[in-house]
Amino acid sequence: xxxxxxxxxxxxxxxxxxxxxxxxxxxxxxxxxxxxxxxxxxxxxxxxxxxxxxxxxxxxxxxxxxxxxxxxxxxxxxxxxxxxxxxxxxxxxxxxxxxxxxxxxxxxxxxxxxxxxxxxxxxxxxxxxxxxxxxxxxxxxxxxxxxxxxxxxxxxxxxxxxxxxx
Length: 166
Prior knowledge:
By secondary structure, this protein is mainly alpha-helical.
């Protein structure tokens, strides 16, 4: 029961921070931080894939409702939830005992940074190219994705030190 409360509070907190604060941060149209994806990233590793996809969809849909973005966040969050198990398998050592919580304290800075970079860059590229839905301005969209990714990664790693220590 305690874990349900923890993740419900995390869901609501990240959603509120995203829609009330971070959706209004935009530096010259290039940097848009999206940290709501941290909810999907910090779900237990043992979370079944169908639940992971469903929770990703619900988080993305919630952001879409408040942002009026017509499902772009939902699609991007489901894409992130789909990739997450593969990224964990890719960067985790097979011999080591895996913690069920994919946080910075459990796996260390290097592992968490790789994990965050892979997932955030994949999410942001998918999101921004889905948003423009054209290859016109490919370089501009790519540049915007990378700058937003860097800023989001910084906020996510910082949040691990300030808030999400377990």
